[in-house]
Specification:
Number of strands of chain B: 7
Shape of chain B: globular
Cofactor (chain B): FAD
Largest sheet of chain B: 4 strands, antiparallel
CATH architecture of chain A: Orthogonal Bundle
Structural class of chain B: alpha+beta
InterPro entries (chain B): Acyl-CoA_Oxase/DH_mid-dom_sf, AcylCo_DH-like_C, AcylCo_DH/oxidase_C, AcylCoA_DH/ox_N, AcylCoA_DH/ox_N_sf, AcylCoA_DH/oxidase_NM_dom_sf
Oligomer: heterodimer
Number of helices of chain B: 12
CATH class of the largest domain in chain B: Mainly Alpha
Domain Acyl-CoA dehydrogenase/oxidase N-terminal (chain B): 11-92
Largest interface: A-B, 22 and 24 residues
Number of helices of chain A: 3
Radius of gyration of chain A: 12 Å
Number of domains of chain B: 3
Number of strands of chain A: 0
CATH topology of chain A: Non-ribosomal Peptide Synthetase Peptidyl Carrier Protein, Chain A
Largest sheet of chain A: none
Number of domains of chain A: 1
Enzyme class (chain B): oxidoreductase
CATH topology of the largest domain in chain B: Butyryl-CoA Dehydrogenase, subunit A, domain 3
Structural class of chain A: mainly alpha
Order of helices and strands of chain B: HHHHHEEEEEEEHHHHHHH
Strand content of chain B: 5-15%
CATH class of chain A: Mainly Alpha
CATH superfamily of the largest domain in chain B: Butyryl-CoA Dehydrogenase, subunit A, domain 3
Helix content of chain A: 40-55%
Radius of gyration of chain B: 21 Å
EC number (chain B): 1.3.8.7
Distance between the termini of chain B: 31 Å
Chain lengths: 84, 387
């Protein structure tokens, strides 16, 4: 499973990043690129569905969704927890 | 009584004396604001290193409630000023220019106003049409600000704008504009049912040749999430609590006067007072628990910016603003005609008109709609004492 590629795919379905998701670097701030609060909620929902995980409340903050790298790290941690 | 409380009581006494005139004439509460400056309450939140007193939001909230019992408009001006100052204190510490600004606010007791509302955007804080236009080391900004509370009386305005002319409407910055750097042309008058003294007129704001260092380095999205949302809802709620408390005090005095006239009987209005007192306690509990949660977060940006915290703050605003209206209306029902008249010691017309603004300033439906989105992902904790 290529998590980073899946995240880019999901981002591409977000209004703010349609057609631009591949140009984002790992550390680009998604919020500076136009991700708003509703967009981040949609993003969380899509990630939960795709990876079959649930973000606990303590990860539901701006930092966890600030960049592709932050999302990838959060998702990897949760996948490992589910597997354990 | 703490020194803050004693100073606030002195300001409240001045504010109360002029509250009716401020309301009737729809004018700025200048006596109260002069008293706030004389008691040096405008720089309270500024850290000691910049010459302030380093007070926290909880202490400011107490003062908002004290002032709210005297003059709603003066209390709201005080609250709005400190909401802006909390953004500077939270996000301006690393910026030398904003450090010097904080020193000036503390030393000169400068009054800070806010310009977020914009024609074509309305009250949606997180979007702007106007944009900062940078040329070299300076920028220009023109904004159709349909509301700037006490804009004409402020020493500086913190305004939102897009980062540059090509930026998305949500890619905003917050800029500090000193009164002598801007021109304000009045485009709308604030002639309202209540809160008449906040003088929230509309303006065309123009700024030219402002040094770029006056732009706060943090994106406004972060400022909104990490300081403004919390400080706005906590301090507004405290002002509304003050207004409700004043009304409950009037109702209690009225019922007790009735009881003294007819010894041996419980006046029929006492039952209504019991209901109002019940709601007033629940309102207080809601605000105090929100203030405690804010204190417990110790300024941690991830906690304060989390979905759960945002839901809590949204719920605080909706609950408290509705309860405040209900409590003042309940108090009026107890006091009856003596409260409806404008010329008795029990008059409640002004506080009732003032408090009716509470569910409208950021409309409760807009806030509930935002909560509805957040609830799509929030998980519950199921614990009584934590979160």
């Amino acid at each position: 499973m290529n998590i980073a590629q899946d995240i880019r795919e999901i981002l591409g379905s977000n209004e703010a990043f349609a057609g631009k998701a591949d140009q984002l670097s790992e550390d680009d701030s998604l919020f500076d690129r136009g991700l708003d609060s509703f967009g981040s909620v949609q993003l969380m929902l899509a990630l939960e569905e795709r990876f079959n995980i649930e973000f606990p409340d303590e990860l539901l903050n701006r930092k966890s969704f600030s960049s592709i790298r932050a999302i990838r790290e959060a998702v990897s941690t949760l996948i490992q927890q589910e597997a354990a | 009584m703490s020194t803050f409380a004693a100073r606030a009581e002195r300001v409240a006494a001045v504010a109360a004396r002029h509250a009716d005139a401020v309301d009737r004439e729809g004018r700025f509460p200048e006596e109260a604001v002069a008293a706030l400056k004389a008691e040096r309450l405008l720089g309270l939140q500024i850290p000691g290193q910049f010459g302030g007193e380093g007070a926290g939001l909880v202490q400011i909230a107490e003062l908002c409630s004290t002032l709210g019992q005297a003059c709603s408009a003066a209390a709201m001006v005080f609250a709005m000023h400190h909401i802006k100052v909390s953004s500077l204190v939270t996000h301006g510490l690393d910026s030398p220019w904003h450090g010097r600004l904080m020193e000036r606010i503390a030393r000169e007791q400068l009054l800070v106003a806010s310009s977020t509302t914009e024609a074509g955007i309305g009250g949606d804080l997180r979007n702007s049409l106007c944009a900062v236009e940078t040329t070299g080391e300076v920028f220009a900004l023109g904004k159709d600000a349909s509301v700037i509370s006490y804009g004409a009386r402020a020493d500086l305005i913190l305004a939102t704008a897009r980062r540059h002319p090509d930026a998305a409407t949500s890619d905003q910055v917050l800029v500090a504009l000193m009164a002598d750097q801007i021109s304000l042309v009045r485009t709308g008058d604030w002639d309202t049912l209540g809160m008449r003294g906040t003088c929230s007129d509309g303006f065309r704001l123009e700024a030219r040749n402002v040094p770029v260092e006056q732009i706060l380095p943090k994106p406004f999205a972060e400022i909104a999430a990490q300081s403004m949302l919390a400080s706005s809802h906590l301090l507004w709620s405290s002002v509304w609590y003050g207004i409700a408390t004043y009304a409950v005090d009037r109702a209690r005095a009225f019922v007790q006067a009735e009881a003294r006239r007819r010894p041996g009987q419980v006046p029929p209005t006492a039952l209504r007072l019991a209901e109002v007192s019940n709601a007033h306690q629940a309102m207080r509990g809601t605000i105090v628990s929100a203030l405690r949660r804010f204190e417990d977060a110790h300024g941690d940006a991830d906690t304060i910016g989390s979905v759960g915290f945002c839901v809590m703050l949204n719920n605080l605003k909706v609950t408290v603003s509705d309860m405040a209206v209900e409590i003042v209306r309940g108090a009026l029902a107890i006091v009856g005609l003596a409260g409806y008249r404008n010329d008795t010691p029990f008059s409640l017309g002004r506080p009732l008109r003032d408090v009716l603004s509470a569910p409208l300033m950021i409309g409760n439906d807009r806030i509930l709609a935002n909560t509805a989105k957040l609830l799509l992902v929030q998980k519950g904790s199921g614990q009584l004492m934590s979160a």
